[in-house]
Amino acid sequence: MSAALDEVAPGVWRWSGRHPEWHPRTAFGSEVASWVLRTGDDTVVVDPLLGDGDAALLDPVASGRVLVAVTIPYHVRSAAEVAARYGGEVLGHAAVARRLPAGTRFRAVSPGDDLPHGMVAFGIGSPPRQELPL
Question: pTM for the full model?
Answer without folding.
Answer: 0.92
